[in-house]
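#help-structures
NK: newbie question, is this the right format to request a structure? protein is Thioesterase family protein
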Amino acid sequence: MEKTNKINIRVRYSETDKMGVVYHGNYAQYLEMARVEWLRELGVSYRWMEENGVMLPVVSLQLNYRKSARYDDVLTVEARLKNTPSVKIEFDYTIFDESNKIIAEGNTVLAFINAKTFRPMRCPDYILNKL
């Protein structure tokens, strides 16, 4: 199963260091933006899930940097569902520059958590049914 979604992001000045290079910590936000839009394309929003008792915290984040992104670059962030969700949901990511060269690759694992008990739970059916 591979459900993919892509978003474009223009690097803002505030996301760069003195050399105009994207600060490494900002890549995690780019992954989050792609993941949120992946869910939205599926017809589910983080807000709606939280309002309905499901939290989805990141339990693992891995990034490999290949090339620097710079101020005003337009990046494409591709989020791919790695496998069928269970208690966890895992995404792979590739970030491309405007010439389609790979800037970075990453992976996140998130856990479905019951908002009332703060205990792990299975992936809600409303997500599984859309896959």
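mod (FA): yep, format's fine, and the tokens are attached above. The first strand starts at residue 4 and ends at 10.
NK: thank you!
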